Amino acid sequence: MRVDVVEHPLVAARLTVLRDRGTQPPVFRAALRELSTMLIYEAARELPAVQHTVATPLTPAVGSRLATAPIVVPVLRAGLGMLEAALGLLPEARTGFVGLARDERTFQPHAYLESLPANLADYPVLLLDPMLATGGSAAHCLNLLAERGAKGMVLVCVLAAPEGVAALDAGDFDVRIVTACIDERLDDDAFIVPGLGDAGDRQFGAV
Ligand code: PRP
């Protein structure tokens, strides 16, 4: 497992908007989309590419394109706010969905949707979820993806708690985590501190 924290002033500025409790849903959604673009740009840095030649107006030039269209997997609900950014950068990508809700008492993920290709062995896979807290939700998803043959997965998350990073490390997943920040800790409700609250509720204005 590898963890890449993206250190960039524009990333930090968008993260600050997300953290601010006064940020309303429309601005929250825009900041999440923009921050996701930057994180996914970094996440895509190691995608395999193939060379091909194009004709410029002057002469042939060797260029490149992605070798294989990736699969992006937003984790519902909160991961949906990262999907538009992913498809903007990776228009050839296909999308799988996993629906999870964390039990507020046990903190265990309850799965309510699983819509994934049967075989992921030949595809780069990017898992999108703004929050890595206990790591239970990410571990559930990474197991689903690995069962389908996915290798070298990338988890793109806005914030990670040290506890969640440690849990994925202990699970020995073949995953690279790309995040804007590793926060201090989890509180007694397994919320990331200082965090940004509930990313699902805040982007959708859920009641
Ligand atoms: C949040 C978040 C992750 C999960 C992280 O989702 O978006 O999916 O919790 O927690 P964990 O690392 O402890 O598993 P939540 O279950 O609140 O659902 P939502 O996306 O519908 O808000």
TrEMBL record:
Pfam families given in the database record = UPRTase
Q: What class of enzyme is it?
A: transferase
Any GO molecular function:
glycosyltransferase activity
Cite the SUPFAM superfamilies for this sequence.
PRTase-like
What EC number(s) are associated with this protein in UniProt? 2.4.2.9
Cofactors needed by this protein, per the record, are:
Mg(2+)
The UniProt keywords, alphabetically, are: Allosteric enzyme, Glycosyltransferase, GTP-binding, Nucleotide-binding, Transferase
Where do transmembrane segments lie in this chain? none
Superkingdom field: Bacteria
Pathway note:
Pyrimidine metabolism; UMP biosynthesis via salvage pathway; UMP from uracil: step 1/1
CDD domains per UniProt:
PRTases_typeI
Specify the Phosphoribosyltransferase domain's residue ranges: 5-205
Q: Which family does it belong to?
A: Belongs to the UPRTase family.
Name-wise, this protein is: Uracil phosphoribosyltransferase
